[in-house]
Design goal:
The chain is of the alpha+beta class. The protein is built from 10 helices and 24 strands. The chain has 2 domains: 386 residues, FAD/NAD(P)-binding domain (3-Layer(bba) Sandwich), CATH 3.50.50.60; 74 residues, Rieske Iron-sulfur Protein. A hairpin with a 4-residue loop joins strand 13 and strand 14. Helix 2 runs parallel beside helix 9, helix 3 packs across helix 5 and helix 4 crosses helix 9. InterPro entries: FAD-dep_OxRdtase (IPR006076), FAD/NAD-bd_sf (IPR036188), Rieske_2Fe-2S (IPR017941), Rieske_2Fe-2S_sf (IPR036922), Rieske_Fe-S_prot_C (IPR005805), YhfW_C (IPR038010).
């Protein structure tokens, strides 16, 4: 897997993995911005908090983004107004604006050196036929009371912009430095962090019992699932109410300074970019080529296209890094934050941030803290995971039809009769009348895995750039050895000779 620029240029503290049974007031599963913010706020309230992370703190999407801390989320506000009304759109803004201000407050109170600064954020189009969408968004934003402006074009940007909206006084930072500082601040308040501690099961009850991969048990009065994709579903069918996308980012030296600000287009294909100074060089962070997990073109082609775009449009030359990230997309543009279902009031979920997890994830921390401490939140209804609007939409029907198509087509795949010839190559191969995924590593060794996804049984596709097996149905991802990289799957892939995969979704 390609490492993010933020990770390559950080020196994070390492935390031990859990090695014993423990008890706590609040257990948080997932060590990104959502989990750490929730932990920080609960610890400030005097709660005993434990956080477990399957990998390293911030290793997921929280450490793999552009570092935009903004309430401007594409053209969400007009869509939310159309579906739920202006009050809900305003509530969504208020939650994210409170989150933006909280990020700045946490940075100031804890002296976190993460290159935070206030900056203007722009959303734009280069196409005549989408100017109307920009203008509709602007009208909704003005009705909400957002400090924004409409622009016919943007100066000092090498694009033919037809229309744009700017939000003033937004923010940007180095996300990994922020995460590391936030983790330190939360630990100083009493938080216990355990890295390399994947969760494999949950037994619900007044006191929940959560089991780790090493068979340790964590007993907790409250469980917060902030692991990006809910590995425990609570019969709320999160896997059907959202879909997973891969996003691609690159960093290069920028020789010609652009207009100040953060930028994202609403066009297809979309482009996002901003400048970042690391103290010695002015860099361009840019990305695009988003696609559903397991359903896009080859990742090499996407990065090649991005590199060509950077050279042609922004005249960049010296590339410093490239990486991808995963986003869970809700069908109505609003995340699912709150009680995991209508019946269980001590299990909480935060997912479906639709690429805007820095502010939405921070807002999730505010909401969940309020629900635990006060049994209420100003934003409870807006982000309610059980809202009916998340089901009744054309997108819900379309995406789940797409899942069905990929499920069936995967089962009809015919594997090759030949093993991979080149090092770094992966393919579906027929062995003894059964399909297996075969990868040949750089040493010429073969890794053969059962490619039936352990979540709901879809057939996996090979990701040639990151050398992973990706699920086109619900976004689970596995490395070539079969280890889980992304949920909702809870079980790894079995190697050849070790039997069939254990398809076991945690729905109840």
């Amino acid at each position: 897997m390609n490492e993010s620029y933020w990770f390559l240029n950080s020196s994070p503290k390492e935390y031990n993995k859990l090695g014993e049974n423990i008890k706590t007031d609040c257990l948080i599963v997932g060590g990104g911005i959502t989990g750490l913010t929730t932990a920080y706020l609960l610890a400030k309230e005097g709660k005993k908090v434990v956080l477990v992370e399957a990998d390293k703190i911030g290793y997921g999407t929280s450490g793999r983004n552009t570092g935009k801390v903004t309430c401007q989320h594409d053209i969400f506000y007009s869509k939310i107004e159309k579906k739920y009304g202006l009050d809900k759109a305003k509530s969504y803004y208020n939650a994210n604006n409170e989150a933006l201000n909280l990020v700045e407050q946490i940075i100031e109170e804890n002296n976190i050196k993460c290159d935070f600064k206030r900056e203007t954020s722009f959303v734009f189009t280069e196409k005549e036929d989408t100017i109307k969408d920009i203008k509709d968004e602007y009208r909704t934003c003005k009705k909400i009371g957002i400090n924004c402006e409409y622009h016919e074009t943007i100066e000092n940007i090498p694009l033919d912009i037809k229309g744009a909206i700017s939000f003033t006084n937004q923010g940007q930072f180095n996300p990994k430095k922020y995460i590391d500082g936030l983790a330190k601040a939360a630990v100083n308040l009493g938080l216990k962090i355990y890295e390399n501690t994947p969760v494999v099961d949950l037994e619900k009850g007044k006191i929940c019992r959560v089991k780790t991969r090493e068979d340790n048990i964590i007993e907790a009065e409250n469980v917060i699932i902030s692991s990006h994709s809910p590995w425990y579903d609570g019969l709320n069918f999160y896997f059907a109410k959202e879909y997973a996308e891969r996003a691609y980012l690159m960093v290069a030296v920028l020789e010609n300074k652009l207009a100040d600000g953060m930028f994202i287009s609403i066009d297809d294909p979309s482009i996002t970019f901003r400048q970042y100074n690391d103290g010695s060089e002015n860099l361009l962070i840019f990305g695009g080529g988003d696609h559903k997990v397991g359903q896009g073109g080859t990742e090499k082609e996407i990065f090649d296209d991005l590199e060509h775009y950077g050279k042609e449009v922004f005249k960049v030359k010296d590339f410093k890094g490239k990486w991808s990230a995963q986003d869970n997309m809700s069908f109505d543009n609003v995340p699912y934050i709150g009680y995991i279902n209508k019946r269980e009031d001590n299990i909480y979920v935060a997912t479906g941030f639709s690429k805007w997890g820095i502010t939405n994830g921070t807002a999730a921390g505010i909401i969940i803290k309020d629900l635990i401490i006060n049994n209420n939140s100003d934003y409870k209804d807006t982000f309610n995971p059980s809202r009916l609007g998340s089901y009744f939409s054309k997108d819900f029907i379309k995406e789940n039809a797409n899942v069905a198509i990929n499920y069936v087509s995967g089962k009809l795949k015919i594997g090759s009769g030949d093993m991979p010839k080149n090092n770094g190559e992966g393919k579906i191969v027929n062995i003894d009348g059964k399909r297996y995924g075969v990868y040949k590593d750089d040493n010429g060794d073969f890794y053969i895995v059962d490619t039936t996804c352990t979540h709901l049984g879809c057939e996996l596709n090979f990701n040639s750039e990151e050398k992973t097996w990706d699920c086109p149905c619900h976004g689970s991802r596995f490395d070539y050895k079969g280890n889980i990289l992304e949920g909702p799957a809870l079980k790894p892939l079995k190697l050849y000779g070790h039997g069939d995969n254990d398809v076991n979704p945690k729905l109840l």
